[in-house]
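Protein modeling request. Please complete all fields; requests missing the sequence field cannot be processed.
Requester role: graduate student
Desired output: 3D structure, token encoding
Chains: 1
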Amino acid sequence: MKITKEDLHGVFKRFVKAIGQKIDAGSYDGLSLENAPIYGGYLVVQYGPLGSESHPFGHVRLKAKEMYFALAMACDALDYKKQQQEQLNKYEIA
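Delivered output (94 residues):
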């Protein structure tokens, strides 16, 4: 299976939405998907004020396919948890 940039950025958008964050659009409080092939691939970065950066999900860079499947699995797990919580809420006694 070949993963395109569009595939990867699509699942990244889904992931960011699922965790209640926003994609960095020039501000310092969003997440960004950084690619540096010379260093090994993709990394999720959060930029802070004055140019600082953090790596909230670890410092390990992943190849496009690995990052795609890691983000997709995280999204699936978050969706599963949300569905389970909705089922519990359905039967909650008021």
